[in-house]
Amino acid sequence: MMAMDQTLGILFQLCQSLLVVMLAPLLMGWVGQCRAWLQNRSGPGLLQPYRSLRKLFHKDAVLAHNASPLFRATPYILFGCMWLAAAIIPIIAVDLPFSPAADVIALVGVFALARVFISLAAMDIGTAFGSLGARREMLVSFLAEPALLMVFFTSSLISHSTQLPHIVDTFAHHEFVLYPSLAFAGLAFVIVLLAENARIPVDNPSTHLELTMVHEAMILEYSARHLALVEWASSLKLLAYISIGIALFLPHGIAEVGNWGALPLAIAALLTKLALAGAGLALLETFLAKMRIFRVPEFLGTAFLLAVLGLLIHFLLGA
Amino acid sequence: MPIPFTTQIINLLASVLLLIAFAMLSQRRILSLINLFAWQGLVLAVSTFVVAYSTAQHHLYYSAALTLLLKVLILPWLLHRLIRKLNVKWDVETLINIPATMLVGIALVIFAFNLAAPISQLSESITRGLIGIALASVLLSLLMMLTRRKAVPQVVGFLAMENGLFFAATSATHGMPLVVELGIALDVLVGTFIFGIFFFQLRETFDSLDITHMEKLRDD
């Protein structure tokens, strides 16, 4: 029985990991397509990210002469970190064999590890743009990380656990309760998601304008398969963040390990939620304007404020 | 013990009230400040209505209607008219910068919650946890009055403070007697008229609504 459970768990884990890796570029394509529709353009199509990944993998990589091994290793580390994060989060099923490996705090650490490596690699070649991007990235992330932790603390306090499966379990499989504190945490989380994934009010993913770019400035020196991995890792990161959001705030429909019957429903629910989240992201990006880099601390300060207010309200009202 | 659904809604509305208080504190434009004040009134009216419904106290329906009429429609309309006549749509000037104000605001919220904890032990109403939030929004409005230099935001802060007090009364004791509420409503209305006249006088005397001019004594 024990061995059976383990095999099932590993099967579910494999299923989720493969699904996530395959799905991530599609999510990017969907967001791009929605943005195009909202801006009255015809758009590149849903499969464009796959096409560009294929193109990049077939090219020959060009490296700067002074590139260190760190520069070469970073795309793989980045991709590995994001894939690991996506394997830990309960996306289609709770109680996966990987999920006890890290709770939400360690998950923040995994994202931080990826960030440290991409920033180091950006500074490695020694170009002006690389270090500029790395500095800006650090400015954004050191403000976003505490807000993210506060969001996690709020849901951990409600569910009495920092393990994502427990949190999902508390919210999905009990009777419905309105949590004002979670509403605040949700708002804060959306702001953090926009900042961490280099989306529009903080960074514009579709320009190479030197004065505004953050994420693009860091990956300017990458080409071919390295660039493909970095791009794929960014789409995985977006998927991971949206899945964390789903797990914390809308966890209904996530299956339990071993329950094959609930799996199609779980995948259908996931696809619906991802499609809605992607469309919402595109809508936000169309309505908002890119803000000056010096306004970003205030924007992320708002996220921190909202998350702290959520915590305080939880302590006062117990809800 | 599961919390009744109406209480959950009241809790949610209370949190929105606190959020609006913070939004007012961070607001840079007078027009959006007044709109936020109208929203605060609306949230207040809805929460009074829900309290009335859940405790079956009929006089609270009247005070919800009164709130809706006065604080969502009449007062914002008066304020809008006032700033149109005074032609003040410029940005609000603050004494401390906004992020610092927000940090002070968080400290005030913690202070208010601690202060309200023993008081809410004494109350027996279902919504006793909300006294802390009401107190916090009173303090935040006070902070807004303290950190603004111009007269109009200060008056909006004063009115928002009254909103917080009203919320405290509704949540702690299920509202004051109707006579008292009518009296307060009238007071606020008359107060706003007087403030309007005061604004015009202020502008005529100093050519500005900056109240720091009033700190100087003049010999002539």
Structure description:
The complex is a heterodimer of chains A (319) and B (220). Chain A is an all-alpha fold. Chain A has one domain. Chain A has eleven helices and two strands. Chain A has helices at 2-38, 48-58, 69-88, 104-124, 128-159, 164-172, 180-196, 215-218, 224-249, 262-287, 296-317; strands at residues 93-94, 255-256. In chain A, strands 1-2 form a two-stranded parallel ribbon. The radius of gyration of chain A is 20 Å and the shape is globular. In chain B, 78% of the residues lie in helices and 0% in strands. The mean pLDDT of chain B is 81. Chain B is an all-alpha fold. Chain B is built from seven helices and no strands. Classes of the chains: A mainly alpha (319), B mainly alpha (220). Chain A binds chain B through residues 175, 177-178, 180-181, 183-184, 297-298, 301-302, 305-306, 308-309, 312-313, 315-319, and chain B through 2-3, 5, 8-9, 11-12, 14-16, 18-19, 22, 26, 98-99, 102, 105-106, 109-110, 113, 116, 129-130, 132-133.
Order of helices and strands of chain A: HHHEHHHHHHEHH
Order of helices and strands of chain B: HHHHHHH
* Stretches with pLDDT under 50, minimum 5 residues of chain B: none
- Gross morphology of chain A is globular
Mean pLDDT of chain B: 81
**Assembly of the depicted chains:** heterodimer
Q: What amount of the residues of chain A lies in strands?
A: under 5%
Shape call of chain B: globular
Question: Strand order within the widest sheet of chain A?
Answer: 1-2
Give helix % range of chain A: over 70%
Biggest interface, chains and residue tallies: A-B, 22 and 27 residues
**Number of contiguous helices of chain B:** 7
